Amino acid sequence: MKTPLVSNKFKKEEAQLNKILNEYLDLVYKNPILDSDKIAEIKKEFETPFNFVAIGKVKSGKSSFLNALLGVKIGEEEIFKSGAAVETSKITIARKGNKEPEIENDVVIIYKDIESLEGIEIIDTPGTDSIMEKHEKITYDFLENCNLVMFVFEAKNIYTKSDWELIKKIVHQFKKDIIFILQQKDRAKEEEIQTSKKELIAKCNEIGIKDPKIFVTSAALEMESQEGSGFEEVREYIFKEIGSHEKKSMKLKTIINKLRDSITNNESILEKEINTIEDYRKYYETLNMFLEDNYMFLKENIEITIRDSIISYYSMKMKTLKDKVISLYKTQSKVKDLVEAELIQFRKDTNDMFKDIVNRNLNDILKEQNKRIEKMFSKEEIAQKVKDEPYLKIQLQTDIERYFEDFERLIQRELHKVLDDAFKSIKFKNKTLFNRIYLTRSITKSIEEEISLQEEKIKNLLNVLIDNFLKDMNTKTKTKMLESHEDIQNKIDNLEKYQEIKRTLDSYMKQLENIEQAIKL
């Protein structure tokens, strides 16, 4: 059984790694927050098979050597066309597969479904003269990424200046492993072969290659399955130095380490973003709790200290007014002017008292409100936000004071309108003895009806004003405290998604660890 060029071990692990790579690549591209740098390169590096570049002069036997290396026998279809009439000006790449050949510029890719191409690709370059004339750049592109260079000489002729210029570049510029093939040994005498080996060693020493790896082969003998072709030695060397289990394991470990570095980097990105979102979520939740609690605090206090106080005072004042007016009607014959004076005094006293209730109580509530804001901004989940936006708290307090001032002016203005309209529907007349009883009953009923109406007006007005004020202030405060509310909410909405991605990345890390354990030798 011939020695394979590359180990076919770890196929299961390769498939698992390829699955992780594909899923990870897809995950990263679907989530712009993740760093995609070098992932495509890792994927390409993983999928790039071990490759061998063959270089040599035209008629050096290079194509025949490659066919024989891949196990082609006499009478079988050649992979690399050989012979004097063959066009040799293109680079030919042989890969495993069933596809039709692909041609792009000066590169031809051929696919052969043969076992010897499993996990590798062979690159056959034009003759060295053609390389130096017009294919230098494209050949160099392949040299940069190859695993091994096989330089093929005719067994009895290594004397080509252009060849050695290229060899110096391969060793010193590209720093690639190189082996030398003295091909067509069946056409050379033993002494010619030995002379070529000595000359080749001397040339190698001149350019700094110590102990060059030289193989003497005969493609004709190998393709005829005869002994002494020299190909088994080539295969054993390639397997040992390039394609062994150990080398393949090293390649997979390199890919795993690069992939692990990428995943670790993206886990850090996610961790940072998740922590940021968690901070925003705490900030957001704390503010919402504060706003809900604050709404109830303000509602309760304003209703008790302003609405209920005003309604209570107003009802008491109206009752007093009613008693005075009724008393006037019972005891006085001319009461119109007296009642008007009482109404003027009633409006003045009530208006002053309303103003005092509103000013005093709103001021007390505002002071308590500012204490609550101070306390709220001292919370850890809020403190960082305040640190990032140092004017937020001060600005918020300033704005709330302004909201209270606007509310104070509004409530006084609207209450004043109610007072101006109070009792205008009642026609007060001077009383005579004849209609004393009738007018007293009538005015009593009218005043009582007006009092009920006024109390309902005041109550409804205060309810509307308070509710509108609270809702408006709550909206403005929330907007001020959460100026980037939509952005914050979007971030919070992404929290679960990022946590799920993080769990997926963690699972990839565990799978990589399992693969790494499986390929240990």
Description of the structure:
It comes from Defluviitoga tunisiensis. This is HSR1-like GTP-binding protein. Residues 98-184 form the Dynamin N-terminal domain. Helix content is 67%, strand content 8%. It is an alpha/beta fold. α8 runs parallel beside α9 (245-331), α10 (336-377) packs antiparallel against α12 (392-421) and α12 (392-421) runs antiparallel to α13.
Short summary:
The chain is α/β, with parallel strands linked by helices. The chain has helices at residues 11-30, 39-47, 62-69, 128-144, 161-173, 190-206, 219-223, 231-243, 245-331, 336-377, 380-388, 392-421, 436-481, 485-518, and strands spanning 50-56, 91-96, 102-104, 107-112, 120-124, 148-154, 178-183, 213-216.
Profile the largest sheet: 8 strands, mixed
Beta-strand level of the residues, as a percent range? 5-15%
Question: What's the mean pLDDT score?
Answer: 86
* Oligomer type: single chain
State Rg.
Answer: 48 Å
Number of domains: 2
What are the secondary-structure elements, in order, as H or E? HHEHEEEEHEHEHEHHHHHHHH
How many β strands by DSSP? 8
Label the structural class. alpha/beta
Low-confidence stretches: none
Give the overall form. Answer: rod-shaped
- Fraction in helix: 55-70%
State the strand order across the main sheet: 3-4-2-5-1-6-7-8
Tally the helices: 14
